[in-house]
């Protein structure tokens, strides 16, 4: 028998906006373009000119929770990642004299000391003082209109590349016609059932041999949760109604392991101000790979956050106040696609010496211990992902999960 591995792809393709990664990428790409514009010769990728800019990620919503603000600095192409801005003092003040203070709970991550939520008709202002004494503030910002999601649903679909899968859509409607600018984020959770699970497994003995033992943990049923990496934007400005119909959140190919048995998606709808929406849209447009080498390049993005002491200092980020609506759905694979997941799980029986190496490297799991004298190796096994779900997810069931 031959042991065949097949990669099980997990689609994680999202439109990314207003994440620190995108912001850093945008700045680095902008500097990179300035250096290599109209150049076709080999070049040194090290950054010769660099502008150190503070990056502020600050969104507060009408959700009652501990809100977070993230501070960091832009970084060079050759650097490994962003440098957190630590040691700052952050607060949010309101037009009715409330103050919400934030404390640093991890490097560059600041969490409100108390839970709070944004309320209508109140102005909110962000204030930041860094450890080197620089001060930043936002313009006064109010909560946009409040609107709720109508429906989230899944449909079987063949995409433009001829791939069969599941399309996830959202519908929304604001009868007051005041929302207009929307952003969507989502969190996926899916259930994985290992098709060749057995109650026993193979382990190495202290002498380097193999022994059959009961499994020590749950490895038949697992769950995996993945958050979207940014926000999908849309608006209804050109429509007669403030209505979103069949807005595509994600397409999942039928062979993606997230459609193994049962799938859930939690969708969050953000109603944004026109300024916030346009900031994120422009950031997304000019940080995309399609526009990286375009002839038209942007100037520095205009933020609603500014330096108090130096009007010429550049600031990246946006202080966003947004209303949020959320909805979760569940569906079974068979209900949408009508066919089971196409596991590639060949059972094989390698020679004992080869099997020891496979077990040592955690590549296989036991299916059956063969009687002595039977042809082939002493054990039937499959690749580990087929008999141990912890290779694909966590064996801890989420509190919200419904079968």
Descriptive account of the structure:
The structure is a single chain. With about 400 residues, this protein is mostly beta strands. The protein has a 15-stranded mixed sheet that branches. The model is unreliable at about 1-45 and about 290-300 (pLDDT under 50). It is elongated. Helix 1 (about 20-35) packs across helix 2. About 10% of the residues lie in helices and about 40% in strands.
List keywords for this structure.
5 helices, 403 residues, disordered N terminus, mainly beta, 3-stranded antiparallel β-sheet, elongated
What's a concise summary of this model?
By secondary structure, the chain is mainly β. Helices cover 12% and strands 38% of the residues.
- Whole-number radius of gyration? 26 Å
Quaternary status of these chains? single chain
Name the average pLDDT: 86
What is the helix/strand order? HEEEEEEEEEEEEEEEEEEHEEHHEEH
- Label the structural class: mainly beta
Unreliable parts = 1-47, 289-298
Task: Indicate the topology.
Blueprint: H1 20-36, E1 54-61, E2 68-73, E3 83-84, E4 89-94, E5 99-106, E6 109-112, E7 123-129, E8 135-138, E9 141-142, E10 149-158, E11 164-173, E12 181-193, E13 200-204, E14 210-214, E15 221-227, E16 232-235, E17 243-253, E18 262-271, H2 274-287, E19 305-307, E20 315-332, H3 333-337, H4 352-360, E21 364-369, E22 379-383, H5 384-387
Parallel strand pairs: 1-20
Antiparallel strand pairs: 1-2, 2-3, 2-6, 4-5, 4-7, 5-6, 7-8, 7-9, 8-19, 10-11, 11-17, 12-15, 12-16, 12-18, 13-14, 18-20, 21-22
Helix pairs in contact: 1-2
């Amino acid at each position: 028998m031959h042991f065949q591995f097949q990669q099980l792809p997990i689609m994680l393709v999202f439109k990314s906006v207003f994440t620190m990664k995108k912001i850093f990428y945008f700045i680095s790409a902008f500097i990179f373009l300035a250096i290599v514009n109209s150049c076709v010769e080999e070049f040194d990728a090290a950054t010769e000119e660099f502008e150190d800019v503070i990056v502020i990620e600050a969104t507060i919503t009408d959700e009652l929770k501990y809100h977070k603000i993230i501070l960091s600095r832009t970084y060079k192409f050759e650097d490994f990642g962003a440098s957190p801005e630590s040691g700052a003092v952050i607060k949010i003040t309101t037009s009715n004299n409330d103050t919400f203070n934030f404390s640093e709970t991890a490097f560059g991550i600041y969490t409100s000391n108390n839970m709070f939520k944004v309320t209508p008709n109140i102005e909110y202002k962000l204030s930041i003082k860094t450890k080197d004494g620089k001060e930043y503030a936002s313009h006064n910002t109010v909560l946009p209109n409040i609107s709720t999601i109508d429906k989230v649903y899944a449909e079987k679909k063949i995409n433009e590349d001829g791939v069969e899968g599941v399309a996830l859509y959202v519908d929304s409607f604001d009868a007051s016609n005041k929302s207009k600018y929307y952003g969507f984020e989502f969190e996926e959770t899916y259930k994985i059932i290992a098709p060749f699970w057995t109650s026993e497994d193979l382990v190495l003995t202290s002498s380097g041999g193999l022994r059959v033992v009961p499994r020590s943990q749950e490895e038949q049923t697992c769950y995996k949760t993945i958050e979207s990496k940014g926000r999908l934007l849309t608006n209804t400005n050109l429509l007669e109604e403030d209505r979103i119909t069949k807005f595509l959140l994600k397409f999942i190919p039928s062979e993606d392991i997230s459609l193994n048995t049962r799938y859930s998606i939690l969708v969050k709808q953000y109603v944004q101000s026109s300024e916030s929406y346009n900031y994120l849209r422009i950031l997304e447009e000019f940080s995309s790979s399609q526009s990286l080498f375009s002839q038209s390049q942007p100037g520095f993005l205009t933020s609603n956050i500014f330096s108090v002491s130096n009007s010429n200092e550049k600031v990246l980020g946006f202080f966003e106040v947004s209303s949020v609506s959320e909805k979760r759905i569940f569906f079974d694979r068979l209900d949408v696609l009508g066919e089971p997941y196409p596991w590639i799980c060949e059972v094989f029986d390698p020679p004992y010496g080869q099997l020891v190496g496979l077990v040592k490297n955690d590549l296989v799991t036991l299916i059956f211990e063969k009687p002595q004298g039977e042809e082939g190796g002493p054990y039937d096994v499959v690749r580990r992902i087929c008999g141990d779900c912890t290779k694909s997810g966590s064996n801890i069931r989420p509190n919200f999960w419904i079968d």
